[in-house]
Amino acid sequence: MGLTKQYLRYIPAGNFNIIASTDCNVVFLTLEGQEGRYVGVAACEDIIIWDMRLGERALVLPGDKYEVTQLASSPDKRFLAAGYSDGTVKVFNLKSGENVTSFSGHRGAITCLTYDEDGHRLASGAKDTDIIIWDVVAEAGLHRLTGHKGIVTQVRFLNKYNVLVSGSKDTFVKFWDLDTSHCFKTLVGHRSEVWGLTLVKEDKYLVTGCGDSELRVWSIVSKDSAAADSENVDKVVPDTEGFVTGEEGGDLDGISPLQCKKAGSVLRSGRGRVTSLTSDNTGQVIGCHGTDGLVELFHFCSDQDANNRFKKRQRKERKKAANLEEAVSNQQQQEMGLKDEVRRLASVKVTDSKVKSVDIVMGRGEELRVALTLNSNCVELYSLHVSMKEAESRCLRKISGQGHHSEVRSVAFSSDNLAIVSASAESIKMWNRPSLACLRTVQTDYVLTSCFVPGDRHVLVGLKSGHMLIVDIVSGDVLEDVPAHSSELWSICLMPDQRGCVSGGSDATVKFWQFELINDPNNTESKAKVLSVLHTRTLKLEENVLCVRISPNNRLIAVALLDSTVQIFFVDTLKFFISLYGHKLPVLCMDISSDSTLIATGSADRNVKIWGLDFGDCHRSLFAHDDSVTGLQFVPRTHQFFTCGKDGRVKQWDADSFDKIITLQAHHGEARSLAVSPNGQYVVSCGSDRVLRLFERSAEPLVLEDEAEEEREALDNEALVTGEETTVPGHIGLNLPSKKTVGSEKAAEQLLECLEICRDFRAKLDEYNEQVKAAESKKKKPPPPPQPPALMVAYQASTPEDFLIEILQRIRSSDLEEALLLLPFTSVCELLGQLPALLDRGHQTELVCRTMIFLFRVHHSPIVNNQALLPIVGKLQQLAINRVTQLRDMVGYNLHGLQFLQRELEAKEGIQLFRDATLEKKNKDRQKKKKERVAKRALMML
């Protein structure tokens, strides 16, 4: 076999420009014991935690190649759950930044996440219309709830009951009993998609948002208390001033443990549908927003405040009554309604952008903080005092300068490889390549192309209006606005002699410009000169110009036209040399190699063609991308080039062997442009996901055959991961909350290999024991004991039982059931036969019992009908009951021991431990403040 050509691998070197993704929500997080200061947002596949006081990144949680779609913080503020577009859920430890748990069970992108009150369970809803309840402590799935016909938009746990509430785009709100994993109630009072729901006032009310301007409020009561108040069930409360009443004609009898009745509606000021609906940590304030820039806040008052407002409203209406009889009749008809409990707070208005997500948190002194993410790549923090009437919201911090507010259309490297310039629809920014920090921002119009001027102090920018700007990066000023073309200026290329440039636009002309230094027209007193351009020549063509390139030897100029051809002219005489035709759609990008022998063209027909510049012959046509090729550039002093396309990928090619070297999964969406540094060490790309991705050439060699094999394996794994969920045959309703993944298959293979090794080693041990007995009977020297297999030695296991328990421990908890399901029945029988020895030893009792119970559930009939397994089943039953009883006694003993120590310490020190004392203190402080307010009101009345 001959030697294969090796390349150096390009690896990711950092992402920048993105502040917050628009497809994910924002959450408040607690770091270092400070609440209301840190917010977590998604940045494509990464998670950024912003310090809103300093305006800096406090922590970055890196991800893989899939985009983050949902975030949720645990009640104890220690963990952050993240849902991804491939259906996986990961849990991160905020203190260490490590991924502690991974769950895989959905077939679509995660759309909602929520923790229960204790933080032990996590509910996830996805685009596959399923809801899965995960046990965070055991790292396993508990239930898969199927019943919705549309995308699940929101899920919430009820704290008082073991019930989950879910809303979906199928216009239904469902109540799920988590003890039996079934839906016992469905609300059908919505005429459009349910976009959000939340629970307020300790689960007293359920608030839902749909496609109209109403927030529907539903009262939730237990069936026993509803029966006690049956006299008031069918009464309709008359409401006015923005609150509409109604009721749900649901079935009050049946298996439903709860009664959910419509209490009224809150009218929003915003137009359009509800985009998101959230409540604070106390359940008193809800925030909602639509498709505009208005965030509306509503405060659900306490029962005492609501009663006071109701009495105040009664007094006002009594004064307005014409006579005493009418007042008495009105008083008899009136009851406390929703408008007495709900108070509208000051709204948060964003004028220059649309709100994409919102999160609120209640702080000390009833200060409400509101975090927003905007579609302009910004994060904002607002503050509002709930107790103050007519209090306006104020902006505390706005993080917007660290990224473009729209898609980046063009990127370019400086000649010293240290600076990167990026251009978008509203500005151009210069970045420091080593630190990825933004150095300068200049406001401009819509930019289509850009490049550095020799000296790296100025940048040439081509606008959509056809003008060409000369921007001084050091001062951040636009030195000159040159009306270069009458319509879009698509391409600017520097001359090889560094003395001028060439521009091509949609007005079917190519213009040559020469750099010159002129006196500053704005400052006539200063003798300093500024850069300008002088128009020297014009090349007129028959079609619109999309791209222009000049060969490094300054001999030829290539012009890509709208008629899908590339016309090549001589630079000195502008005479036609040759035409390159063969693309079916227009050429969007092209480049010429450093030795001026090859030209590569990328087209909207998804192909890249490599041409020779001597005769114009096509060396090879490559099917490069799954969509239009938008960027192409050669690596200096080589025949290798990079391409990017609207499929989001960046690929490296060899123009000599016509091989694809590597594929970089770069962008979630379309890739717009790329640039290669002059030394060929770095590559930067931009796309519609607003991320600038930097790749660096490493010292790691890359072999094409190995890379092709890895790509094939990645495609097979992706097809496996996106498969259907697991349904156990022969068991109706046994739909596992997990799905078959690569990890579960590898775990099953390890388990089968372990059983085989244990079987062989046991056979050797039995043979050795027989030889020892024979030697003792013949009074001979016994043979040496057999050595354990190499794999057992690697796992530091001396017996088959140690080896088996080690393999079971190494299987990820969320993959255990799927791995056991992949085992054949013969291996299941063999595994069951080894479980009594593991239970008898008392190690990992919980893991062994979980394995045993799942195997009994799945293979119940074959195990019961197998006479050889019945003694093993009886032994397992007895051992499992004994071990579980011991564990329960141990936990109970420890719990009561801790409670005894607590009582002793409290009696000795005269203090109250744990959270109860803080809650009592808060209640006392709240009652004291209310008494002071009442006293002030009495003084004012006097």
Strand order of the largest sheet: 18-19-20-22-21
> What would the average pLDDT be, to the nearest integer?
85
Low-confidence stretches: 231-253
Radius of gyration: 35 Å
End-to-end CA span = 104 Å
Q: Please tell me what the overall shape is.
A: flat
**Number of helical stretches of at least 4 residues:** 14
Largest sheet: 5 strands, antiparallel
What amount of the residues lies in strands?
35-45%
Bin the helical content.
10-25%
Strand elements, count: 60
Oligomer: single chain
Going by helix content, strand content and strand pairing, the class is alpha+beta
What does the model show?
The protein has 942 residues and is an alpha+beta fold. It has 14 helices and 60 strands. The protein has a five-stranded antiparallel β-sheet with strand order 18-19-20-22-21.
In short:
The protein is an alpha+beta fold and 942 residues long.
Task: Please outline the helices and strands.
Layout: E1 6-16, E2 27-31, E3 34-43, E4 46-51, E5 56-61, E6 68-73, E7 79-84, E8 88-93, E9 99-104, E10 110-115, E11 121-126, E12 130-135, E13 140-146, E14 152-158, E15 163-168, E16 173-177, E17 182-187, E18 196-200, E19 205-209, E20 214-222, H1 223-228, E21 243-244, E22 258-267, E23 276-279, E24 285-289, E25 294-300, H2 303-320, H3 324-333, H4 338-341, E26 342-344, E27 348-349, E28 355-362, E29 367-374, E30 378-385, E31 394-399, E32 408-413, E33 419-424, E34 427-432, E35 437-443, E36 447-452, E37 458-463, E38 468-472, E39 477-482, E40 489-494, E41 500-505, E42 509-519, E43 529-540, E44 545-550, E45 556-561, E46 566-570, E47 576-580, E48 587-592, E49 598-603, E50 607-612, E51 618-623, E52 629-634, E53 640-645, E54 649-654, E55 659-665, E56 671-676, E57 682-687, E58 692-703, H5 704-721, E59 725-727, E60 735-739, H6 742-777, H7 790-794, H8 800-810, H9 816-821, H10 825-841, H11 845-858, H12 860-865, H13 870-909, H14 914-941
Antiparallel strand pairs: 1-58, 2-3, 3-4, 4-5, 6-7, 7-8, 8-9, 10-11, 11-12, 12-13, 14-15, 15-16, 16-17, 18-19, 19-20, 20-22, 21-22, 23-24, 24-25, 25-26, 25-27, 28-29, 29-30, 30-31, 32-33, 33-34, 34-35, 36-37, 37-38, 38-39, 40-41, 41-42, 42-43, 44-45, 45-46, 46-47, 48-49, 49-50, 50-51, 52-53, ...
